[in-house]
Amino acid sequence: MKKVTIDPISRLEGHGKIEIFLDDDGNVENAYLQIPELRGFEQFVVGRPAEDMPVITNRICGVCPEAHHMAATKALDDLFQVVPNSAAKKLRELFYSSFFVTDHTTHFYALGGPDFIVGPDAPAGERNILGVIRKVGVDIGKQVIACRQRNHEVIKLLGGRGIHPAAGLPGGWSKAINEEERQGIEKTARANIEFALFTLKAFDEIVLKNSVYLDLITSDTYRHETYYMGLVDNSNRVNFYDGMLRIVAPNGQEYVKYHPCDYRQHIAEIVMTWTYLKFPYLKNIGWKGFVDGASSGVYCATPLSRLNVADSMATPLAQEHFEKMYETLGSKKVNGRYLPIHFRLATHWARLIELLYAAERMLELATDEEITCPDVRVIPSGVKGEGIGCVEAPRGTLTHHYLTDERGIVAKANLIVGTTNNYAPIAMSIKKAAQKFIHNGIVDEGLLNKVEMAFRLYDPCFSCATHNLPGKMPLHIALKNNSGQLLQEIRRD
Q1: Which residues pair with 214 in a beta bridge?
Q2: Of all helices (H) and strands (E), which one includes residue 90?
């Protein structure tokens, strides 16, 4: 048996390795996505005061510390039995919406977008942010940078720091905003809406009007029928900050809807010996392996998943694009809601619709008369001994769960991060793409990039670490026979 190794995989957050095993005819027999590093946050937070969790766990990730900060802060609300007032919740969500704008912008233009804007078969040295700028123009590149800059200013203003925010407290938020600051945030939100609309227009012109790309998106190669998960509000609309977790079956029917604190009744995790990342699955269906279908407990929690579980979007412009995506990709309405889209590459489109929703929601909050209320905290008075917090991270549903002693010292912690939810679907997508594109032992960079596209669409953050900057994409593929003899090597440093 021959083996193809892609190590490290690139244009993702964190580190991973893909090993593809070929049979004697050179066709793909199996493929594994291996996460070869251990972070260990769940262990080394043990013994720390629970109130430290928002500023410790946000060090898990250099990309989405805001998500860990918010999930930890909400877990402390539960642990200390305190409910933030309305102004504090709105301030948190305003901060979180700005974070979503900058994070989704990064993925589209720097990580996932090069595959479409520059092209999956373009030379590797061009499939990066610089290639994107060359394709769309320097002025657009400046807009991308400006979008990230203005939103990081908002994150710094509201969160207390540009990265690794510190404003979240049990019962509220540490800093209110004044009218001058509100006006600045409103201006940023309005610019974000224009930027999101421009980006969706660019996606329409570059991707959707290209029949080759549209065929790729709707091909069976990148298609899986699984369950989907996401937070929804009281009207079953997408919500990043709060709500109930809704899971729909592959046929679109609601399978279950539950409060995030009840996650252990519905989600279980299985461990494989060949990787450090666990595989969550639907507990009441069971783990049946890496397979699709209603009888498999595999589920997905991505931007596309969030749209698949929702009846609609909560803002008007995002709703327009939500309907356009489902109509364009052939989904029909049943009982008032669209059937799920199973084309995984459509996740890129869903991410841009979420970008627009985040910008619109940011404007709603920035113009809410309560947003400048100086009273943004309720002081907690007790320790329950257990706290669970949940938000939607850009990559999927994020859950923090702490058990403490009577003093609030952490005795046990469990974190199910966004990418962890998607580990099984990612592994399935990689194997399916490898089987489609690799035949007779023939492997080249263009084919391997199409295999990498199968994981990149999930925007994975395997170690919640810093970005592996594109532009000089490291890649090492070793083709070996079953005795370990090197038959072919492709290296890109």
Answers
A1: none
A2: helix 86-106
**Do 361 and 314 form a contact (C-beta atoms < 8 A)?**
yes
pLDDT in tens, 384-417: 999 999 999 999 999 999 999 999 999 999 999 8
For residue 215, give every residue at least 6 positions away whose Cβ sits within 8 Å of its Cβ, in sequence order, or none: none
Residue 19 per-residue DSSP state: E
Which tokens hold the place of 66?
Answer: 């805001």
Is-contact 230 304, C-beta < 8 A?
A: no
**pLDDT tens, 434-487?**
898 888 877 777 777 788 888 888 887 765 533 333 333 344 445 555 555 565
Strand boundaries in 51-167, DSSP class E? none
Q: Name the range with the highest mean pLDDT among 291-300, 421-430, 435-444.
A: 291-300
Distance CA 145, CA 473 (A): 21
Q: Count CB atoms within 10 A of the CB of residue 418.
A: 25
Whether 417 contacts 90, CB under 8 Å:
no
Measured distance CA(335)–CA(329) in Å, rounded: 19
Quick check: 104 and 354 in contact, CB under 8 A?
Answer: yes
**What is the per-residue DSSP string for 261-309?**
GGGGGTEEEE--TT-SS-EEEETTT----S--STTS--EE-SHHHHHHH
Give DSSP secondary structure letters for 419-433: HHHTHHHHHHHHHHH
SS3 assignment for 354-405? HHHHHHHHHHHHHCCHHHHCCCCECCCCCCCCEEEEEEEECCEEEEEEEEEC
Where does 107-178 have alpha helices with state H? Answer: 114-117, 129-136, 138-159
| Mean pLDDT along residues 68-88 | 97
The Cα 246–Cα 399 span in angstroms is 14
CA dist 117 → 123, 326, 450 (Å): 13, 22, 14
Name the pairing type of β-strands 299-300 and 227-232: parallel
Give the C-alpha separation, 451 to 272, whole Å: 22
pTM of the model: 0.90
Within 160-261, residue ranges assigned H as helices are 179-203, 211-217
Rounded to 5 degrees, φ, ψ at 139 are -60, -35
